[in-house]
Amino acid sequence: MVKKFVELLSNKKRIFFAILVLVNLFALFGVLRIRINPDITALLPLDSPANKAYKEMEKTFDSGDQLIFVVEIPQYNDETEKFKALRELQSQLENLEAVSSVNGPAPRTIFAGLRAIKLEEITAEDIPLLKKFLSNLGELNPLIENDGKSYASFNIFLNPGADYRKAVKEIEDIFGNSGFTYYGSGNAFLQKKLVDYLLVIISIIPPLAGFLIVLVFRSQIGSTKNTILSIFPAGLGALWTVGFMGWTGKELSILTILAPIFTIVMGSADGIHFMSHFMDNLNEDRVGTVEKTLKGVGLPMIMTTLTTIAGFLSLLVTGSSALSQLAIYASLGIGFAGVATWIFLPLVTLQIKKFDKVEPKPINTFLPTAVSKLWGKRVMAFAIIYILTAVIGFKYIVIEFNQLDFFKKSTQVAKSFEKVKEINGGGMPLFAVINTSKDPLDLKTAGEVLEMEKKLKEEGLVNKIISVYDVMGYLNKNAYNLSSPAYPKTIGIANLLFMLASKQSGNPLSNFLLRDQNLSRIMVFPKDLKGETLQKIKETITGLSNEDIKFSVVGVPYVTKEMNDSIINKQVNSMLFAIVMVFVMLLLTFRNFLVSIFATIPIGITLVGMFGFMGFLRIPLNITTATMASITIGVGIDYAIHYSSYYRNKLKDNNSPEAAKKAFMATSKPIIANAFGLAIGMSALFVSPLKIHMFMASLMWFTMVSSSVMTLALLPTMYSKLMRKDPQN
Questions:
Q1: What span, in angstroms and rounded, lies between the C-alpha atoms of 107 and 94?
Q2: Which of 25, 80, 462, 689 has the smallest count of CB within 10 Å of its CB?
Q3: 643 in helix, strand or coil?
């Protein structure tokens, strides 16, 4: 069959080349149609309770995402000009079509006693009254002094259904043109920045990964021509994958953007094995050389492609839409790369007239020689120490994931978020929703809510809280010149103050109170976004519910927490599914239970080591890093397949120790080149602005080096000592 296939390629090469050209042109047009979706909720299971609760709250209160911006106020000689400039800025924000309301330092009207002052008409005589009004707001005061500098904070609520990307751009344009130095935060702000970063990643990371792999393969193969040929099919696979996504209307998300990168890095494995064995078999009979090469590595190439696909497809059991799409498109890319390798490389090697044999340099033989010295008792001792050390690292594993984990601390987004948190008391709010059997402004209800706020602050769980009840307390203080804020003592006064506040354009109560539905909500800024903190806040708030009042808490941080918790649990099933699929494939290929077991041992040890490595380096176990277990199984098993296949062939004419040695000599160089090629290729992710990509690159380094070394050290030892017959018998 292989002979007929090679003859077909040789006789119909023009047709096959024409087909390749047309497919590539079609894929290029598809790339131009690709869209980007940075929404983290795409990572959620379709039945996510936290996301449903958050969306329901937004719908009920008729509000969309909220943004928090902080501006640094320069020195003004005229205080009137300062407040007019702030009013002009806030007015521009309020006039945006996408904006529902703005709570900021310069509302259209403020109250001094029972007198209303319009900021557009403010005079020098009004400045003391305005300052007193703002200072009496206490921690709700949007004018903040910090380290000798003055800042103003703006809480911006978007309309439901607003295009947040367009809205954030318009808001940033207003702040940018205002002359103020500004810092932004909030879910919509982070997602807009994520779009910008993803555009940079898709344009820079894949080419950089390809370039790095070329350098590694070139150092091992010794020929630039052979190196480029080895990687080219993987590049075609990546192009076809992104083109297919474009033509089918699929979007690039924070995870699916990895599909073309995985394709380039992992899809190059078959190419280097083909070219390495092609050069070993090279003689004057070119058709015979290609035929012999495919007979030697054809089945392992198919198997490694299928096992890598199996590793990715195991992510389908997580229930996450984005992980499922990553599984599908990465698998598709690996499959495309495999097809391209089977067609493109035989075509090209049949066509190119001259290939120069390159003698291996000392650096190319150093690592195989070093690994071979581990054979025997040394590798057994090494494996035991390796496993015991990794198990110790398990206790340091942290399960953590939040939106800030997307970004490196060095990025402008992370710095901006931290500045907003420092000045404003928080950058990503939670919402406590209060459902009562009475009027939300009822004195008893207000007392219970304020008691809940007090408890959250006393336990050190929050930095800041904004609520209707706090605002009413400060309005009451200003209206009646009280010494400290206090909620009105009668419902009549509460109604009066509420009526006065409601007359303001973009009044501070409009997004927090639905009296006709007996609903209110408060904005809570947690001290941090760690899962433990979020859980304690939830327990504190919901634990105060009774027959008359029900507390619940929602927010994007809870959405990400639930997403991570649910997928981490399901990832165990994904990993087991990957192991079973790979083992069944090995069993069907080798038709020998013992060989199949032996082949899975190196990757099993590597998985144990990976989790220990994560613990020691404090790499959090989350939705992205957990996927590396399944991917590692599918990719790392490739080395055992190539080695075991060669061992079986050599065992026909040699005893077991000799067959193990010859298999090592034939496969060690391409296996090591591929392992370091994958690791160094994935190192392109280190330049990504996203922290999760850096973690994945680190884990790829560890798992590829570990699985290749374990394969080349353990399998020769086990086969030499434990296998005495042809494993086909």
A1: 10
A2: 25
A3: helix
